[in-house]
Amino acid sequence: SIYLASLHPSTYTLVDGMESSIQSLEKIRQKHYSDLSVELIHSDFLEFQSTAKYDAVICEGAIPTQAFPEPMLRHIASFVKPGGGLVITTVDAVSFLSEAIRRFLARLHIGQPCLDLSHVPRLVAFFQQDLDSLKGMSRKREDWVIDQIIHPWNGPPFSMVDAIATLGSDYSAHGTSPRFYSDWRWYKSIHQEDDGFSTALLASYYSEVHNFLDWRFSLPAADMDSNNNLLTLARQVYDLEFAMESGKMPLDSMPLVILLQKIWHECTQLHDDTRSSLSKVIQAISSKSPVEECDLLGWWG
């Protein structure tokens, strides 16, 4: 928000459901951008209404794991003017697999499926080795534990495939970060009403999605059947963890072990070091001994 303010937009509207966030933003505005036209609105953005349309609408880190991500995205996208840009965060079960495993290990370590803020110091210590491997980490470790380990999931992951399907033909994918796609369209063919970028992006996604699993490696493209199997198994892990956290299933290691073993055996497109991390996880949660520390050997999605 500070960077965007430095560009001095003619209209700048910030919507946040946390009153403390609005108060913090107002202090920053008064200190650094008192001459800027900024509208700060304290509101759940699902309830936010406006007749205004914007050149850019940004909603990062909010849509995946919501109970109803599709209508949420459509509501947010409704504020983009024709020709404008929409920036969102997408998360699929492959990119989130390492975090899903960490959530399970945290619950094994504490000994219960539901965690609260009293567990934060203990979990920061539990994840110390893994967090030490993230040299560029900009978030406080306590905040990471709250956001990624304790905060309950309300719904499914939400991938870029889901986003493209939800928005339909009125929107065209424009780019991704990181850039992973190949675009072989002839330059004169992209000036049509449907520029075909979303189709090209989806083709690259299915051949490259295994690279979302482990940030340490950039592997060659894989065949679609192999990556679809990886997507299916990773989603089964997510759904299993979701069911255990929500109390629909007991906290049980064996169903997760079975799924992780299937990933290890069937997903040969993965790097050997990723497979070593999987082996370490399988060994840890198969053991009858308590899990005293988390060390996935630097594996992050």
Explain the overall architecture.
The protein has 301 residues and is mainly alpha-helical. Helices cover 45% and strands 8% of the residues. The chain is built from twelve helices and four strands. The chain has helices at 2-6, 19-32, 69-77, 97-110, 120-126, 128-132, 141-150, 160-167, 197-208, 224-245, 253-266, 272-286, and strands spanning 12-16, 38-42, 54-59, 80-88. It has a two-stranded parallel sheet with strand order 1-2. Strands 3-4 form a two-stranded parallel ribbon. Helix 3 (69-77) links the parallel strand 3 and strand 4 (80-88). Helix 3 crosses helix 8 and helix 11 (253-266) packs antiparallel against helix 12. The model has no long low-confidence stretch (mean pLDDT 92).
> What sort of overall outline do the alpha carbons produce when their principal axes are compared?
globular
Strand content: 5-15%
> SSE order in H/E notation?
HEHEEHEHHHHHHHHH
- Helical content (DSSP H or I, runs of 4+): 40-55%
Distance between the amino and carboxyl termini: 26 Å
Biggest sheet, spatial arrangement of strands? 1-2
Number of strands: 4
Main sheet overview: 2 strands, parallel
Structural class per helix/strand content? mainly alpha
Radius of gyration: 21 Å
Mean of residue pLDDT values: 92
* Uncertain segments: none
How many alpha or pi helices?
12
Attribute tags:
single chain; 301 residues; mainly alpha; two-stranded parallel sheet; two-stranded parallel ribbon; 12 helices; 4 strands; 8% strand; globular
